[in-house]
Amino acid sequence: MSRPSQPKITSSDHHGVSVIQSQAHAAAALLQQVPQLVPAHPSSAGGKAAAPGKMKKTSADKDSDEYRQRRERNNLAVKKSRMRSKQKAMDTQQRVNQLKEENERLEAKIKLLSKELSVLKDLFLEHAHNLADNVQPPAAAPDDTSPAPNGGQ
Asked: Model confidence over 31-55: pLDDT tens digits?
């Protein structure tokens, strides 16, 4: 059995010479060129460095004017968000109620129109039956001529 051939990749070195490499060799060379990332503080949890804006504040910062202003702005934003959420829920409920009322009206209209259709069908069928009863079939004459009205002699 022959070993499956790897696709060849052509690349140029810094002298402009084309070099044919296997895909595995190219990947290994690429990995050697990628610098390794090392955490700034190896003792941090999970080896992840905390973002500068996300570091814990000391208790002295909680007494600062800036902290109190940020808390007040956040509290107002939360209050505003909750009010919008309640208003949206109320608007949605109002729309649901409107649609229910409209649905009931439409269902009542369907019933009324169905009754009207039934009455009209009955009238039509009765009329059609009366017309059929009034029509007399022509008498079959041996010479297929019908007698003239008023004795037309």
From this structure: 556 555 555 555 555 556 666 666 5
Whole-model pTM? 0.42
Token pair of 135 as six digits: 């029509």
Q: What is the pLDDT of residues 68-98, one digit of tens each?
A: 999 999 999 999 999 999 999 999 999 999 9
Answer for the pair 11, 29: CB distance below 8 angstroms, yes or no. Answer: no
Buried b (16+ CB within 10 A) or exposed e, 104-137: eeeeeeeeeeeeeeeeeeeeeeeeeeeeeeeeee
**How many other CB atoms are found less than 10 A from the CB of residue 9?**
14
Q: How far apart are the first and last CA of the chain?
A: 116
Give the span between the Cα atoms of 8 and 21, in whole angstroms.
6
Q: What angle do CA 63, 68, 71 make, to 5 degrees?
A: 130
